[in-house]
Amino acid sequence: MARVLVTGGSGYIAGFTIRQLIAEGWDVNTTVRSLTRESEVRDWLAVDNARLRFFAADLTSDPGWAEAVDGCTHVAHIASPIPPGAPRHEDELIVPARDGALRALRFAKAAGVQRFVMTSSVAAIAYGHHSSRTEFTEADWSNLESPRTYAYPKSKTIAERAAREWMEAEGQGMAFVTVNPAAVLGPVLGRDFSPSIEAVKKLLEGAMPGVPDLGFGIVDVRDVADLHVRCLTADDVADERFIASGPFLKLIDIAHILRDRLGPEARKVPTRRLPDFMVRILGRFIPELGQVASELGRVKVSTAAHARDVLGWEPRPVEETIVDTARSLIDQGIVNV
């Protein structure tokens, strides 16, 4: 196998992607913002350390990128800013997401990389549309003009569009593919995990008196990693875009799965709906809830039929993903039930 650069090596999706790549025989370079984290990340990745090299590089500056991509034939650009809560200004997300993607592309092209796989999101597909729209494909783009498109969907949309525009103008000779995951759940390797997992964590903790009428497509982190690897190796996928998603579930559906499958360990999980007006009131005091209040009641099904048809990709049952998420949070002491 060739050598691949996986950016954002301390991140949730990147960790599982690195694990699969090394298991399949790849040599891997990865970036972290500071090499002080190398030992910690190696510990929870638990892979053949001889096949994994770390480099310090940041989305917002050039130092380290040339060294990180040197000798690589492929890049999986997974690093992207994901806030734990609502940012003070949308540019806190938009600028590093866009500029980081363009920076990684420039250095990859200069190093002679053959294929560049970028992690985007269904957030770049399914936001800002009329409420009557319930189904989305790779042909769709989020509407940046809509007031319902908040900072995170904006950042993913702008970053992916900028990357595709750069490729059209500058990327000749390098194949480009995006993976667009829905909400990423699954077992956690450590305390660096997808913000989507906060939803399961808060349900297990009984952190709210009821369940908001919010929902999202769900995909397992192990399946997202597998789709990245397929995109790195499959023939004839240049310029493609692949949604990674299983079924759309409301939070109340997740709550019932946890109650049914975990028994006493899920005793704090609420199973009654929180009225929309109460969610909007709470959103005035909880910024991360306030920014998604416009999504109350919405159904957004992002089909992964294209990934199934072209790449033979198949996500695991969503119940397995939800239970594995919860059990790993409990087993690692992240949630005290």
Quick summary of this structure?
This protein is an alpha/beta fold and 337 residues long. The protein is 39% helix and 15% strand.
Task: Describe the overall structure.
The protein has helices spanning 12-23, 38-45, 65-69, 91-110, 151-170, 197-205, 221-233, 251-262, 276-283, 287-290, 305-311, 318-331; strands at 3-6, 27-32, 52-56, 74-77, 115-119, 135-136, 175-181, 183-185, 215-220, 241-244, 248-250, 301-302. It is α/β, with parallel strands linked by helices and 337 residues long. The strands form 3 sheets. A 7-stranded parallel beta sheet has the order 3-2-1-4-5-7-10, sandwiched between helices. A 3-stranded mixed beta sheet has the order 8-9-11. Strands 6-12 form a two-stranded parallel sheet. Helix 1 crosses helix 7, helix 6 packs across helix 8 (251-262) and helix 8 (251-262) packs across helix 12 (318-331). The longest helix is centred in the first third of the chain and has 20 residues, at 91-110. The radius of gyration is 19 Å and the shape is globular.
